[in-house]
Amino acid sequence: MITTAILDVDGVLTYFKSAWQHLHRILGTEYWASINREAYKAGLINYRDWAITDALLWFGVPKTWAEPPITLRRGAIELLRTLKAANMRIIAITGGLNYTGAPIRDYVNHYISNELIYDESGNLISVRVNVESKEVINEILNQLGIDWNEVLAIGDSEMDIPMLTKAKYSIAYNPTSNEVAGSAKIVIQSETLYPVIKVVKAILKIEEPR
Fold first, then answer.
1. Where would I find the H helices in the chain?
2. What are the two backbone dihedrals, phi and then psi, of residue 173, each rounded to the nearest 5 degrees?
3. What angle do CA 206, 208, 209 make, to 5 degrees?
4. Is 167 within 8 Å of 180 (Cβ atoms)?
5. What is the arrangement of strands in the sheet containing 186-188, beginning at the earlier edge strand?
6. Distance CA 146, CA 192 (A)
7. Residue 11 phi/psi, 5° resolution?
8. Residue 177 CB partners (closer than 8 Å, separation 6+)
9. Which phi and psi angles does 186 have, rounded to 5°?
10. At the top level of CATH, which class does the domain 4-14+73-119+127-203 belong to?
11. What is the chain's pLDDT, residue by residue, as a tens digit (210 residues)?
12. 93, 132, 159, 189: most buried by Cβ count inside 10 Å?
């Protein structure tokens, strides 16, 4: 029996693929961010060092700038409502940043992300790395007493491969590579999440209203 849905956020519930890169575009720090990214890809720094170095590009930025409002992908709220109405435990997990959680917190049971840290004046000073990889979901499921055979997972990137591979049902939504597509049982290409909702209803045996 499927009891739990694990959803990636960046690229699935949002139009942008990375909350980090989205914020860099807004704050005009894309150039220096690209240098950090290349250093990480080259193995010169590890993930945590990359995250902290990246966040320091925004040092002193007020919280109101660092946590911009976002537009969710069409069908995102409907998908969350469908899962909630089916009494599913909903876990949203992202390697992105906590500002993406604002529009979905009322619909999910758990929201896990990296967190921007501010001083007493509300200015950004660092980041807390909570999601270095999606392997962290294993610990969360163990704490909740949930087996992977109870899980429906939806993701789009290489970071999502572990959960797409282990889940009873998995959907690669607009997968970023053939490897991601191959790790899921179902692949969906669409600008909206409405086709995902149809598949989810079929998996959960939710009847469409007549």
1. 19-27, 30-41, 47-56, 63-66, 76-85, 136-144, 161-166, 178-183, 194-203
2. -100, 120
3. 125
4. no
5. 124-128, 110-118, 89-97, 4-8, 151-155, 169-173, 186-188
6. 29
7. 90, -15
8. 158
9. -130, 140
10. alpha beta
11. 999 999 999 999 999 999 999 999 999 999 999 999 999 999 999 999 999 999 999 999 999 999 999 999 999 999 999 999 999 999 999 999 999 999 999 999 999 999 999 999 999 999 999 998 888 899 999 999 999 999 999 999 999 999 999 999 999 999 999 999 999 999 999 999 999 999 999 999 887 665
12. 93
- Supply 153's token pair: 């997972």
Assigned token pair, 159: 């970071």
Beta-strand pair 89-97/124-128 = unpaired
> What tokens appear for 19 in the block?
């909350």
**Amino acid at the residue 26:** I
Residue among 64, 66, 44 at smallest CA distance from 55: 66
Two tokens at 127? 């980041």
In 3D, which of 16, 46, 9 has the Cα closest to residue 30?
Answer: 16
Q: In whole angstroms, how far apart are CA 83 and each of 4, 25, 44, 124, 204?
A: 9, 32, 42, 35, 9
**Residue in the structure block whose two tokens are 């890809």:** 41
Structure token pair of residue 174: 């607009």
